[in-house]
Design brief:
The chain is an alpha/beta fold. The protein has a single domain, classed as 3-Layer(aba) Sandwich (Rossmann fold), CATH 3.40.50. It has two helices and five strands. The strands form two sheets. It has a three-stranded parallel sheet with strand order 1-4-5, with helices on one face. A two-stranded antiparallel ribbon has the order 2-3. β4, α2 and β5 form a beta-alpha-beta unit.
């Protein structure tokens, strides 16, 4: 097998891509953690919309449905539209290449929304 030298980040001339979680990132829950009760955080949504406006490819990446096996895609798309979220794609826990349910993400490129 022949290997190539990989770049850590996209080249300056290429569109940068950001994966954005939804729950506890752009929306929160007052008590019961149920998707129809989520409350948008418009300050955090504006941070993501700014990346979109700067030319980033924004992909909302949520594990909604990964445990229950229920497809929440339509509900989630409606929420994103209602909240004024700018994005290119949505990947859920029931998408063809789904986001899995997990308890901890360790990654060299990860940031919390508070760091933006």
């Amino acid at each position: 097998m022949k290997f190539h030298e990989s770049k850590r980040f996209s080249e300056e001339s290429k569109q940068k891509v950001v994966l954005v979680d939804i729950d506890e990132t752009i929306c929160f829950y007052p008590e019961t953690r149920r998707y129809d009760l989520s409350v948008p955080d418009y300050n955090n949504i504006e941070k993501i919309n700014k990346l979109y406006d700067e030319g980033w490819k924004v992909i909302y990446w949520t594990a909604r449905g990964s445990v229950s096996k229920r497809d929440y895609s339509e509900h989630t798309q409606a929420q994103l539209q209602e909240w004024g979220c700018k994005y290119h794609d949505l990947v859920t826990g029931t998408s063809p290449n789904p986001k899995p349910h997990f308890d901890l993400l360790i990654d060299d490129k990860a940031k919390r929304i508070e760091e933006l």
